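Translate sequence into structure tokens.
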Amino acid sequence: MALVPKRFLAFFSLPILRRAAYHFRRMTGGLDRAFFLRIGLLILAFLLFAAALVTLTERHEDGHEWDTPREFASQFLLSFHWGVTTVMAAGDASYVKSPIGILVSWLLVLFGVGIVAALTGALVGFLIDYLLKEGQGMGASGYRDHIVVCGWNATARELIQELSTDEYTTNIVVMHDSDKNPAGDGIYFVSGDITMARDLIRAGIEDAMAAVVCPADGSNEADMKSILCVMAIESLAPQVRTVVEVNNPAHVEHFQRADADEILVSSQLVSRLMARSSLYPGLANLVTDIVSGGEGSELYRVQLPDECVGLSVDELSAKLRAEHRATLLSVSRAGQAYVNPPEDFRLAAGDDLVVVAESLGSLAPLQMDHDLH
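Result follows.
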């Protein structure tokens, strides 16, 4: 297996095969099936006629008479098999000796050349169409458990850069109404409208792990389009976790009604961080380092280990620090975050933790519930 090139294996990976299947369905969806059925019947009739003609002419050539219909049927099947293999350029040339039989064999060879040429042309045409459509973002991702980035702006660019350096890397699909991939190489691109179901399906939204919705600009209209995008995603794949960037804080209520899971108002986040930094110097650098994966300070949300059920926060903090080199930031229970819980707070089954650590190590990443806000 080590001798097989990685590019060769990647070409036949499941996403590639799903994309090829999508393009095949797209190209054959408008074909007239009745026409091809008639063509197939015509080819079959031609082969049957050729087999019957060869069977009869070769009988007279050898001076042999068929004693029973079974003998004739047996010889006819052999002639039909010879005709099919001759079309496929694998027939036995010595099977026929009569002039008519030789003429039929020539016709079958020419017929086979025509079929091979037609199939080769169809395959080349399919590959060219596949490559062109994929380059233009007209394909289907074929991924599962991936992240779909709906829309493109500066936030999306930084987001993709951050995700590409995460310890648990995942496939990323960028969906944007453009003729060119804005994310560059290594990121699958789908050209389409983020509010349209058919384009979201091509991005694989039904099998995605999460969707991140980024407004195209800072206008209210961009927020409205993001709301429509969230509604479309919730209609197609309610289990997919949606994270939305919002321009106007007044629109947060609308995003909540659309059932967005995570709503981030960029202006509020920046202004509040700037306010705290003006009071406490260095706070902005600290927060930036944590959320951007600085050295030894990756931010993770993990499942509570079974052996930690019943511990106090102090005991859990000491255990995480000693065994995982992780610092506990908060405990989440039933959708509520406890950043600084009281002394009598005890960990329970089903809790999850937000920690800062160099890596996850043996800690299990949290499998997010769509209905957990």
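Note: The longest strand covers residues 326-333.
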